[in-house]
């Protein structure tokens, strides 16, 4: 990117290519290339696993909007005398009018919960250091981008704001938000410090904001000295939890941080609140105000859980096709352990004339979004997937979740957390749902028992021969979506 390039255009072009690139790049510490078409693991027999960076990027790209929370913000202040405000409107922040225009242009009417407290802190005079933790999608990026843009003095032609992201793709995402928000502030110039960006030796950067990955920023700031880290007065560390999970990044961040001036304002953001993240935060952020929005936990409260005994894979298949035939009550998601099983199941169902969607890690991000969009619109009633989708399904109309394979961890033990993410709902949806676990061996029965014990919630045996059981289930299922009993009866008869 040349120094005077149209930032918005650059981001638009980069974004256009991003989905293709994502399939062919390594999201890891060394940022080396990986085989095309392989976002997850290459081995389709292996359980699908996704790096924190991949998961974060996917969540960002797939998410449609703000994740609202009913929880209150928790605030901790080292210095109890430091003022703390919160705002209910963007006007109350006394923003540059063109920035405010940009915020409204993005469709933001009022600050999100985390923004209500984070923004006045980030914009306070004298500057305050902030550690903010809130789950993905709650408005953290928008908050610090607004603060970054507000802190620029465009009459001074040197980098003043530095934002570190863990990967190329995440940096591009942040840049896109910044470009969008700064739409009416053409005087603010930004530059990506990511792989592929080269600047001739001896250049001095004149852009106000640098958004980049730690390795490149270290090179530019310390090795080539094309900008002065001491002149940076706002330092943002985004996705700190993903940063830590990326090898070598933590040390690089600390090296960058050591070269900043002591008066530099520190903004630290994380989606999780692990001890490791907080230790890292302590290193980087002195005397912070810490704000925290606890995630709305998923629970099994509204979910009725069943298990069905199947002798083999074919019986599992039969059970699934029966379910498919009766999901008039809503939509279903079927979870498989490996990409291979998901492919086998979907192919078999397609051959038998069923329309199902399949979402696995070998799809590009663009393809995944298409699949999800179609499913959200109800174009397919059944979605077959792997753990690529275990978190944040957020499709309200999904009433049935089938575990074709029960979730297990790398040691082949019950993975209760994944079970909860697959089946559970947050208070947001509050609707009833049904989970059906297909059990085809003694091992899977043992896993089921572990899950049952872990959550202390009974997983009912679904036995279509037992008339009492059918009656009980019929009543229960009729609570789901208030559909007629006739339709629901067919659901219960699936397993006959
Ligand atoms: N005040 C707001 N009003 C409406 N929408 C908002 C507001 N703030 C952010 N959003 C939108 O909500 C979504 C999530 O916001 P954002 O990306 O800032 O969250 P985040 O916490 O940074 O998530 P992540 O950790 O995944 O990056 C985005 O689509 C963003 O445009």
UniProtKB/TrEMBL annotation:
Its EC number is 3.6.4.13. Residues 25-50 are annotated as: Disordered. It comes from the Eukaryota. Residues 121-291 form the Helicase ATP-binding domain. PANTHER family: ATP-DEPENDENT RNA HELICASE DBP3. Keywords: ATP-binding, Cytoplasm, Helicase, Hydrolase, Nucleotide-binding, Nucleus, RNA-binding. Residues 302-470 form the Helicase C-terminal domain. This is RNA helicase. InterPro entries: DEAD/DEAH_box_helicase_dom, Helicase_ATP-bd, Helicase_C-like, P-loop_NTPase, RNA_helicase_DEAD_Q_motif. The keyword ATP-binding applies. It catalyses: ATP + H2O = ADP + phosphate + H(+). It is an enzyme of class 3 (hydrolase). One of its GO terms (cellular component) is nucleus. It is found in: Cytoplasm; Nucleus. GO terms for molecular function: ATP binding; hydrolase activity; RNA binding; RNA helicase activity. Residues 88-116 form the DEAD-box RNA helicase Q domain. It holds the Pfam family Helicase_C. GO terms for biological process: regulation of gene expression. It comes from Rhamnusium bicolor.
